[in-house]
Amino acid sequence: MRPISVAKALPRVLIGAILLIALLVAIPVASLALGRTGTVTDWRTATHRPVGLAPDPTAHPDAVVQVYASQTFGWRGAFAVHTWLATKPAGADHYTRYEVIGWYARAGRSALSVTDTRTPDTEWFGASPRLLRDLRGADAEAIIGKLEGAVASYPFPDVYRAWPGPNSNTFLAYLGRALPELRLALPSTAIGKDYLPAGQFLARTPSGTGHQASLLGILGVSVGGDEGLEVNVLGLVTGVDFVHRALKLPGIGRVPDDD
User: Per DSSP, which regions of the chain are E strands?
Assistant: First the structure.
């Protein structure tokens, strides 16, 4: 058999790459067309109601750490989620919420928001949050004791890019790596979680149970006990969740979803 020349093979590889990207994009686009992202179209009228996932701080004296994810607003909700973390030290009568918010950076402020005026489990522009982690008592206190140092060391407080990062999911992934006790496995739809600082290509997965290689969050692969196997192409993640015996699809996440 005559060997195939590089010049002849290159167009086939390019066509294959284009078809793969088109397939990955088609899944979230289909969910957008089917109305999977909800019906809220005006951010000014979108609701921010608490949904009852956070315990009443006045009735629960123990320390609490919770991590939430919710669909992003508008058409981007077909592709990605927004994530944040909330804490309540033992005996405190309120929560503190930590997250990165894009329009803060666009207004010339720090993108990093630390506030005790927002409840931890509110809707994100009409989309109900999903509880990713819920730690209580001594486990929560261990996280709280190290959290301020981890937040202060976040390398992108004044930078925000919805794609490929750094964004809200980059921030939560950073906290996960800095605080392995949190054991935070972010959803595969948390676009930006694989974004690493320039010049860094290898890191632990956010859960601390594996490792990943990533090129600026655009191309990479992750293998971890909690994450399973994930392949990132242009921020869109496909993979296999071995723990829950499920697939991971762009814009959808784990299928079937046991939560």
Answer: 64-71, 81-88, 96-100, 112-115, 130-136, 202-204, 210-215, 219-224, 228-233, 236-241, 246-249, 253-255
Type of residue numbered 184: L
Q: Is 63 exposed, middle or buried (0-12, 13-18, 19+ CB in 10 A)?
A: buried
Q: Do 86 and 68 contact (CB within 8 A), yes or no?
A: yes
Across 239-255, average pLDDT:
90
> What gap in Å lies between CA 141 and CA 118, rounded to an integer?
21
The alpha carbon dihedral of 135, 133, 194, 110 has a sign of negative
Cα–Cα distance between 16 and 9 in angstroms, integer?
Answer: 11
Q: How confident is the model at residue 44 (pLDDT cuts 50, 70, 90)?
A: confident
Spatial separation of the C-alpha atoms in residues 160 and 17, rounded to whole Å = 28
Write out pLDDT tens, residues 129-170.
999 999 999 999 999 999 999 999 999 999 999 999 999 999
CB atoms within 10 A of CB 184: 24
The distance from CA 200 to its chain's CA centroid, rounded to whole angstroms, is 19
Beta-ladder partners of 247: 240, 255
Closest CA to 217 of 232, 239, 200: 232
Flag whether the pTM goes above 0.90: no
Give the β-pairing of 236-241 and 246-249: antiparallel
With cut-offs at 50, 70 and 90, classify the pLDDT of residue 1. Answer: very low
Which runs of consecutive H residues, i.e. helices, occur in 187-257? none
Residue 189 buriedness (CB in 10 A; 0-12 / 13-18 / 19+): buried
Q: What is the 8-class DSSP label of residue 30? A: H
